[in-house]
Amino acid sequence: MSSPSQIANVSSAGSTRKRPGLLSSERVFIFTTLAPAVVLLSIYVFFPILYSAYLSFFKTALFTAKRFSGFDNYVQVFSKTLFWTALGNTLVYTAVSVVLTLALGLLAAVVLNGPIRGRNAYRTILFIPYIIPYAAYALLWYWLFDPRYGLINYLLSFVGIDAIAWLKSKNWVIPAFILMGLWKRLGFTMVLFLAGLQNIPAELHDAATVDGANRWQRFRYVTLPVLAPITLFSAVIALISALQIFVEPLVMTHGGPGDSSQSLGYLIYQQGFVYTNVGQASVTALVLCALTFGFTWLLLRRFDSKDVFG
Questions:
Q1: Which of 83, 118, 116 is nearest to 268 (CA)?
Q2: Is 163 within 8 Å of 148 (Cβ atoms)?
Q3: Exposed, middle or buried by CB within 10 Å (0-12, 13-18, 19+), for 252?
Q4: How far, in Å, are 103, 105, 115 from residue 120 at the CA level?
Q5: Are the CB atoms for 185 and 238 separated by under 8 Å?
Q6: Interval 254-310: pLDDT, tens
Q7: Are strands 64-68 and 58-61 parallel, antiparallel or unpaired?
Q8: 97: Cβ–Cβ under 8 A, 6 or more apart, which residues?
Q9: Residues of the chain below pLDDT 70
Q10: SS3 letters for the chain?
Q11: How wide is the angle at C-alpha 98 spanned by C-alphas 90 and 204, nearest 5°?
Q12: CA-to-CA distance for 257 and 68, rounded, in angstroms?
């Protein structure tokens, strides 16, 4: 009969043998498949971020660092009212846009997941705006918002609302951009939620019905928890898209009227390519990057990763 020490030695030897080596076929496969993605991310994401951080401490000539200036670029950017205006506009646009996109996207998915005649046509109609190029989409809405001949004001006239100068009013230009963003991203969010709804096992709803749950309770305690991963992914995508708002102020308003439609993305463009102050543009870009990572981290904390990813 083997002693306990012999059994322990045998088990430890077995566990050692099972341990994959540094160049095992499994690890080689993982390294090989991940390498292209890591290389591309390093070239197009990580290096530009690090280089922007480097340039933010220098006086620059185009994209070349010329003279170390410490925190001068940070002081100059943060001391300007234009930066804070752009930051406020971006945050307001992002908050309202993300909430409406998720809420209406989920609502559209629930409605079009039911037995509705022509639902495939409705799904297609809602998704088409997402594939329209940004420049064409901005020009289309520029015409729709025309205060005299635009379709939006024409439709509002039927309910007794006077014409609104959407893009020439400081109070209405951000709501106009929110409406545009909602129209463009709603279909994509709807498709994501539709995929999640169609993968919910019918047995879950049947069990809840047997337990006496009504339609709202089934939606609240069965559908929403199962859709948590889809909700998280949709929220992150909508958040990143909204924070990067750029085409709308560039094509439609040039940041006006006044500075009421300035965004961080458009401010980076002005600082870097109009005024060729890449140092200050790098500071603003780092702020935008920090906001993106920060809000994404908050979303991951809000949706417990154990509950979302199992």
A1: 83
A2: yes
A3: buried
A4: 21, 16, 11
A5: yes
A6: 999 999 999 999 999 999 999 989 999 999 999 999 999 999 999 988 876 555 545
A7: antiparallel
A8: 178, 181, 182, 185, 238, 242
A9: 1-23, 304-310
A10: CCCHHHHHHHHHHHHHHHCCCCCCHHHHHHHHHHHHHHHHHHHHHHHHHHHHHHHCCEEEECCEEEEECCCHHHHHHHCCHHHHHHHHHHHHHHHHHHHHHHHHHHHHHHHHCCCCCCHHHHHHHHHHHHHCCHHHHHHHHHHHCCCCCCHHHHHHHCCCCCCCCHHHCCCCHHHHHHHHHHHHHHHHHHHHHHHHHCCCCHHHHHHHHHCCCCHHHHHHHHHHHHCHHHHHHHHHHHHHHHHCCCHHHHHHHCCCCCCCCCCHHHHHHHHHHHCCCHHHHHHHHHHHHHHHHHHHHHHHHHCCHHHHHC
A11: 165
A12: 36
Q: Which two tokens stand for residue 168?
A: 């020439």
Count of residues in the chain = 310
Name the token pair of 80.
């300007």
Token pair for residue 96? 């309202």
Residue with tokens 């045998």: 10
Two tokens, residue 276: 């060729």
Q: Which two tokens stand for residue 118?
A: 């022509």
